Amino acid sequence: MSWSSELSNSGNRMARPPATDALWQFSLALYPKVQPICLQWQDSFGLNVNLLLLLCYLEQRQLSLSGSQLEQLAATLNTFSQQFTQPLRALRRSSSKANLSVTQQQQLKQSLLAAELSLEQLEQQLLLEYCPALSQSAQPLIERYLSQLQADTPALARQILDLRQAVTQLR
Q1: What does the DSSP assignment read for the chain?
Q2: What residues pair up with 134 in beta bridges, in sequence order?
Q3: Which is it for strands 134-135 and 5-7: parallel, antiparallel or unpaired?
Q4: Is the pLDDT of residue 131 over 50?
Q5: Average confidence score pLDDT of the chain
Q6: Of 95, 36, 26, 35, whose CA–CA distance to 61 is shortest?
Q7: Would you say the pTM of this structure is higher than 0.70?
Q8: What pLDDT does 81 receive?
């Protein structure tokens, strides 16, 4: 994959965000390996899984965002997610309460899951659309994001290590 790069005003190398399909394919490969961590952090800290996957992708390629850029990107995505993705996810999670046959419940859940997956893909497109130029430097983006969410549990360091190991195995 070739990324064009240029020098910023400060002399640092800058890179453009990845192509939408590249991030999506990376996410499809990584997510099954780290799903429990992602869902736990989503439920415990309000983490956006798509933003986490982007940060994993960037770390793997030694690209970085500043703390303020990350905050701005998270805020932009959060607005969309609160309006669309999160309500649909809540509806899917509660679909088993519907007074339907087992077959109908399965159909409903699958339809909602497909719609949720489409929204997840749209979230990734929005992330890349609003992503600023990236600096070519290795930074601990995952820790930066979790810190912004004020995430702190005893298991966090081990989970971050597990996440990074899963990313490394994709190479």
Answers
A1: ----EEE-TTS-EEEPPPPHHHHHHHHHHHHHHHHHHHHHHHHHH---HHHHHHHHHHHHTT-B--HHHHHHHHHHHHHHIIIIIHHHHHHHHTGGGSS--HHHHHHHHHHHHHHHHHHHHHHHHHHHHH---EESS---HHHHHHHHTT---TTHHHHHHHHHHHHHHT-
A2: 15
A3: unpaired
A4: yes
A5: 89
A6: 26
A7: yes
A8: 96
